[in-house]
Structures are given as structure tokens and as C-alpha cells.
Amino acid sequence: MVTKFWLYDIIIYIYALSLLFYFSDAVAKNDGAKRMGEGLLVFVWVLQTLFFFVRMYEHRYIPVFTKFETLFFFSWLLVTASLVASRFFALQFVVFFVNVFGFTVLVLNLMADPGVAPVRLELSNGLLSLHVALAISSYAAFALSAILSGAYLFLQLRLKQKRWTLALRRLPSLEALERFAMNAALVGTPTLILSLSLGAVWLGLENSLPSLFADVKLYATALILAVYGWMFVLKYRMRAPGRKLAAWNVLAFLLLLLNFAVTNDYSGFHPWF
Description:
By secondary structure, the chain is mainly alpha-helical. It has two domains: 1-117, Up-down Bundle (Four Helix Bundle (Hemerythrin (Met), subunit A)), CATH 1.20.120; 121-273, no CATH class. The protein has eight helices and no strands. The chain starts with 5 loop residues before the first helix and ends in an 11-residue tail after the last helix.
């Protein structure tokens, strides 16, 4: 795995090493391996931040527009969230799964062309940059929420089967997993709405607002927001059980991934993808 971006390669290698230490701690509790994994993960965050600013300096715009840049920024947000969760919340075991997902995104990003530049855009427009950055941030919040819900479903299944292990004891309780998952989704939903609002304002300034309603990505995103909105109705009005909420949350995130992977090809306002 060698690319012309040597710093990117170093990030991947150190990230993989960090996951190996986290995995060692997950298999058999090992405080030394855990500390080493956390230290390497902090180093990964520092290198990712450096890579971000180097690219910003080289290209003279905030690098969140191409597919390569958005996936890299998404991975950076997951690393940031995992470090915060590890430091301030009792989610150390979940951190491993968050970073497995973040590492997968970073490796898959090698298939994107880092040399592709955005076209037909005013890249210096701070409003547009904020719109994209908020959208990616909402995706990261939804990803964290879905991983927590996945952990909820896994833990509940093991409890139902009465297959209890020492490793499972390191997971938070079902109540804590449900609470953290809902909180992450509650962060992601208004962030995505704010991103859409800023995008609409930018299109209005560009005199392109009427054509927005012919864009398929708008309706796909509105559908996803409706799915998350219904999940909140299930939670706070209908008092649905945690298993149903977790399954709904995972489904919503799968729809979000499908939206990101497919609808950009049919969007008139996201040509840089």
C-alpha cells in the first residue's frame, strides 16, 4: 500500500497498528495495550490534522469538496469522536468498533483520486464550505449513533441467549447504549438540517434556488431526515422498546450510506463527486 502521498500511507500504517493494540485489549483486557492504542490513535489524529492543513495550503481552499477530501474529513471526525468518547465517557470498547469503521473508510478512500479538483464552484465561498463540512459532520454523528445501536442489538442478543463473557462486561449497559445512540442522532439531525439550510441560502445567492427542487439528492436527504424524525417519535412519543429503536437507527444509517453512494451521480449541485 504505497501512494505518492507518503503522509497518508504513514497515517494508515499507524492507524492499523493502533487497531491491533485495541484488538489485543478487546480480546483479553490489557491496560498496556489499551494505552499504546490510545497513544497511537492520538498520533493518527495529529497526522490527519497535519495532512488536512497541508492540503488546504497546497490547494488554497478548505479541502472538503472532492470525494477523497470528504471521506478523509469523515474519517478524521470519527477519530476525533472516538478520542472524546474514550476520554469523557465509558465507551472504551465501542471506540474499537468506531475506529474499525474509520479505518475502513480511510483505506477505501485510496480508490478515490486525490488529484481530482472541484469544478464550477467558488471554492473561497465560506458558506459553501460550511454547508459541506456540516453535512459530513452530521454523517459522522449518524455513524457513531448507528455503531452504538449495533452494539445494543449485539449485547441484547447475547443476553437473550444467556451467552455472557468477560468481554461483554466491558460494554456499557443497554440503557447507556440507547441513550448515547439517541444523543448522537440528536446531534446529527439538526446539523444536517442546518447544512441543508446553508446550501439553500448559497443557491439563493447564486440565483439557482428554483432548480434545487428538481435535484434528486434533496428528496433523498429529506426522506432520510423523515426516517430519523420518525425514530424520535418512536422514542419520545410512542415509547418504543430499545431494540426497535436500534434497528430503526441502523436502517436509517444504511439509507444514508446509500444516499451518499448513489444520489451524487444524479445531483446537479454536487458535481465534484
